[in-house]
């Protein structure tokens, strides 16, 4: 809202003449209405004040004047709305769409001489960036910016018939004042004469009844339209006007008569109008009269309870009376206030309380108080997540912040679950309307983007939620996944996954079985499980996906059910004792079936060796005709130590013998001769 | 000492030898030559031995004094030899340095990982609120209208529910537009007293430019109890600001409006980059003043929105506002990151360019 300081001073006289524009801007800012810009306009100062959506009453100079007076004191004088004698001419009005138009009033003002506005009026409008049109239109615009009530003037001679009706449009069109042709909608509230719509109510007048140089008699409309109807109409027709802006929020029906009188008085003063007719009103707000003002009681003790500091009754009364509330009752410990019609935001005690706090100022509230200490409730999942991130960074992965939306096709990866993706109804881009079901699509896009910018080798990870439609109705499934994508082969990403699992204490709790769904390469991928539950996939990106993303190099990825793994992490396992005695290192070459996984060898060897085994690693694997088809030779190195004595050769031999026996019995492994 | 002539002569020979030894040692330019000199002096057939043999030729009663004097000189010669050897060894070590060795050559590359700058900021915020006694909680990103709007006192038809301000998902849900949803979930499931914070990502259909993203991170905070006041809010958030931005940071609480809090406020920091006097804000008397790059000339930077939890919000989750009060706040994480590292384009935070990411640890 642009506020002219000179215009504001028409209504507000500060008690203290030293009140500087700087003070004013600061005070408005602190009271909740930041002054974001100030500009010198021909000796006047224009302030750009941000008005919050709860305060439609401040979308005008009078409203701001009242607010300023409540902060600084001083007097607010209402402008003159007294009319000369009312002459008999009337225009009939009717409301046929009471849900869209609660109040419609109009009156005839005769004998205007259309021409340029007087200098003061032009200066006022120009000071807030308004274009001046002619004195009649300028008067309606001035009153709007003065008291917040939009008005409209029709040229009576261009209206057909003696009646204006607020009704729904019926497949009609209207040429608006700006020349655009509006195809009207059945929920548009139009103002129509006997023949056709002459205005899109509350939004813009029609060209046919425009006031121009030849206009002598005007019909002055002062109405109230339903906010939602105006919002819809304004959006439908892409017409956002000063008028629609205010009707969308709130316009005070109780002050419609005043606004109409004020405009008529100015038409006499500035346009030489010779006769002002009486108001005709229609609509529910015209018939029912004014709803009685609501009353709110403010307990003095409640102020201290919420603010943490007491506030004097005198301050309460000064603030609320200053804002135009009328005290209607008071007793020990409370005051009751009648709420003015222009403050629909004040509905309960806390609303009054906030007004007092806001105007008295938050600086009055102490910021040194005792807040009790309390034990911290540590969320193990948060700890585990931090551990996981740390492990992935330690193995050289860079964390990414990824996009939530993907397009159909290659980016819409669904490894862990093939429940359907959720569709976004109003996506940023029409071709990216799905919520991701995997972090990999967005991550691969990051890899691609970096390669496009010349960074060839990359290692990334991201922890982010994915979303799917649940099978039962419209329920939504949201999983936290951890994705890894890097330039490299299976082994590279496997190392990162091993590190991640180790960090969570789950290194041996997760099994790897051959094969994972597309887009992973079936031959170089695996499915991770804890027990029977699938907790992740790992592998090299298949040829089709590489082509779809435009990768020329090998890409390996992994995706883990972070939500499951974090929940089962064993972060504080008891430590494993370190032996003080020397190690015996033994190498074994085992021949076994080609399809036996290392995981199984590892399990069998560990179980057979028991406590003595302190390290186990494979160091060679090969296949040859000599070994035989369908078999492989696996070389492994074991480190054996006893926790409590130096291991003898015989003891080590016995342990190796146990291991060999177990390998033979459980997975058909035999010592290579 | 009353020496006889032969004794005096022997001592004079010894002194002469010492002087000569000094010359020879100085002339020995390297360790090999020093070894030769040493052998000639103190070897089995060396001149020092000659002197010592000369002692036995003296009269018995003169041997003691002469022997002592000669041995002192012999000791000095031996020490001079050692000193010269140390000297020559040091020089030799000097010449062992390989002039082609480049100790400044870059070390062997190991793959380096990094946390995203947003995570770094989040971790810091986490640390501060944890210290202030707040527990971390999480909530879902795909939300229903109840948690995102109704319970937060944003009724049907409120403009904040418009499709222009929210990503609606098929089935009537939406991607949460604020982390305040987590407040509701916590209050639905736990009894006061409560002190929680909820970091998370939120989504709004904003046109992406240098200062706007359509998905960004917030940290929501909530404290509810029997006597939680606006003074507690000020104390907590001032402590947060001082922990985050330094103990001498200037802050102010400015009135604002949010549907889910009342009394509502905005916490501002005094702009560290510009020298405008704070409270006066007299720039308005001088229109056209040059705008500060950091605060746009405001003199203050908006940090977070906060306020006392609206009684309607408490009632929506069956907490009696006559018994309990509370405060809540919401903080934008990307903005903190932008200020901290002077990022001139917020899109850097979602582009994930390695050249950018590698600057953060």
Report on the architecture of this protein.
Chain A has 19 helices and 33 strands. With 673 residues, chain A is an alpha+beta fold. In chain A, the strands form nine sheets. In chain A, strands 21-24-25-29-28-27-26 form a seven-stranded mixed β-sheet. A five-stranded mixed β-sheet of chain A has the order 6-9-12-13-14. In chain A, strands 7, 8, 15, 16 and 17 form a five-stranded antiparallel β-sheet that branches. In chain A, helix 5 runs antiparallel to helix 8 (256-271) and helix 6 packs antiparallel against helix 7. The mean pLDDT of chain A is 93. In chain B, a hairpin with a 5-residue loop joins strand 7 and strand 8 (261-270). Chain B has two domains: 5-96, no CATH class; 117-357, BirA Bifunctional Protein, domain 2 (2-Layer Sandwich). In chain B, the strands form two sheets. Chain B has a seven-stranded mixed β-sheet, with helices on both faces. Chain B has a three-stranded antiparallel β-sheet with strand order 2-4-3. Chain B has helices at residues 5-27, 31-42, 47-56, 60-96, 117-131, 145-148, 180-189, 230-245, 311-316, 333-341, 348-351, 354-357, and strands at 135-136, 142-143, 167-169, 173-175, 194-203, 215-225, 251-255, 261-270, 300-309, 325-332. Chains A and B meet through helix 2, strand 3, helix 10, helix 12 and helix 13 of A and helix 5, strand 1, strand 3, strand 5 and helix 8 of B.
Q: Main sheet of chain A? A: 7 strands, mixed
Uncertain runs of chain A are none
How many β-strand stretches of chain B?
A: 10
Total of helices of chain A: 19
